[in-house]
Amino acid sequence: SSYSAVHTPFTLTPTPISRKSYQYLKNATGILSKLIYSVSEDHDFLYSAIYPIKAGNAFFSALLNMHQQIHSSSRHAPRLPLLIMRSDFMDDNRDGFRLIEFNGIAAGMGPFGQRIHDLHHYLQRQYPAVFSDLSNQATGALVDNQAIEGLSAAICQATCRIKQEFGDPGPARFLMIVQENENNVFDQHLLELALQQKGIETHRRTFRELHNQLSTGADNRLILEGVGPLDTVYLRAGYQYSDYEAFNIDEQECCQALMATRVFIEQHRVAVNATVGQQLATSKRVQMLLSQLGYDEFVAFGLTLQEAKIAKTILGEMLPISPDSINLAKESPSETWVLKNQGEGGGHCLFGADILTKLTELTPQQYQSWSLMRRLHPQPRAMPTLIVRKGELHKVNDLISELGMFSVQTDNNPSSAEHSFAGYLIRSKSAESTEGGVHSGQGVLDSLVYSD
After folding, report:
1. Maximum CA pair distance of the chain?
2. Is the pLDDT of residue 1 over 60?
3. Residue 435 has pLDDT above 70, yes or no
4. Is 5 within a domain?
5. What local confidence, expressed as pLDDT, does residue 414 receive?
6. Does residue 288 register a pLDDT over 60?
7. Strand pairing partners for 403?
8. 448: which of 131, 143, 187, 285 fits an S-S bond (Cβ 3.0–4.6 Å)?
């Protein structure tokens, strides 16, 4: 049935981390959030960064056109940028923590990250002896995870700011734009419920459902037909071309109508996550360019010199595709690199022998849409881990983890009590698996426990 529900897979015990490492990641996450916000509002930089991939990537060509439409006039785009970003890290057994990728649009699963922490806390309290035996590498307390509160508080802050600016009657309103036949509804509903408990009225629509339903009120107020003024628009869709497809709309070129809807939203005074600028700023292309910046260039984006050093280190090593980097890949051991394109949502990385196969297929025009990243090799957990998938118990002997750290910024200001930090998401998988997404791969929900 299309209306059936399946629980997300999860571990029965958490992943150990030292207090020093956790604090370092929280600090680095705040720095990266500050950096990405500045990059997302530097429209000239984004244009120069994305233009080279325009010819070889139709979707990013369309995104860049949308970005130009929003910022082409002399008038500043009136939307209030709300950056909700998840920075994903792995702990390499040689170099330590390094960034895997930014997630600046539809950065989800934070509420589920909190729920698995709550489950581990319950198991630790209810079955202490068994829990201790299964996680004997961890000796400290569970690492608190308040992702639902952190994310909802940031959205509430931005929503109430817009509402107060206009002072019109009625409740503050939040619109979540979702995909057709969305299968991750429970994670989204947890966030909506938290917002409702803060007094915010929530609504859900697809891009198709918004077509011809939005209009302009006084002072660039964004109005939704049948609902009223909107204060925040939050995208859980829009990171792939198919989100803009509408076969029952008469248009000269695919996806133009629904992309125009997104442009229309940003031309109004409403809090928006993610802006097109934020989506471009967190792309693999920009990530690669940022990894090659010098300290002075980071400082130009508003970082201190000390922050620039941390950003430079944790961004790791990425290379553009060129004859030189192709030769380097050929000469390197097969486990040295990962080949990435600009896709979002999992399943867009190539490993091992597949890298050279793909590189030989690429035309020079397509080079700019791909990049090489030095592959990270985390140390697996010291003991087997029990996971639950589709109601069945499995043992994994080589579990490794990807640490997603949420950060929030509103109008270039941290939006949480912890300097923009807003909770975490841990996804773990077998070291043999190359795809760790909970929905798109072999990943399972996990949480953290201090090892000291």
Report:
1. 66
2. no
3. no
4. no
5. 77
6. yes
7. 89, 426
8. 143
* Residue 1: inside a domain: no
| Residue 244: C-alpha distances to residues 126, 207, 233, 254, 255 (Å) | 47, 7, 16, 8, 5
The total number of structural domains that make up the chain:
1
The answer to whether 29 touches 338, Cβ cutoff 8 Å, is: no
Q: Which two tokens stand for residue 143?
A: 């690492």
- How many angstroms separate the CA atoms of 42 and 33, rounded? 14
pTM of this prediction?
0.95
Predicted confidence (pLDDT) at residue 417 exceeds the cutoff of 70: no
Q: Where in the sequence is the domain holding 18, given as residue range(s)?
A: 10-450
Alpha-carbon span 105 to 85, nearest angstrom? 7
Residue 339 corresponds to which tokens in the numbers above?
A: 């080949």
Residue 367 inside a domain? The answer is yes
Query: Across 232-335, where does the E strand assignment appear?
Result: 232-235, 271-273, 318-320
Confirm whether 4 is domain-assigned. Answer: no
Helix (H) or strand (E) holding 210: helix 207-210
79, 268 in Cβ contact below 8 A? yes
440: pLDDT strictly greater than 60: no
- Is the pLDDT higher at 251 or at 19? 19
CB 402 within 8 A of CB 428: yes
Residues 344, 430: Cα–Cα separation, whole Å: 22
User: What pLDDT does residue 73 have?
Assistant: 74
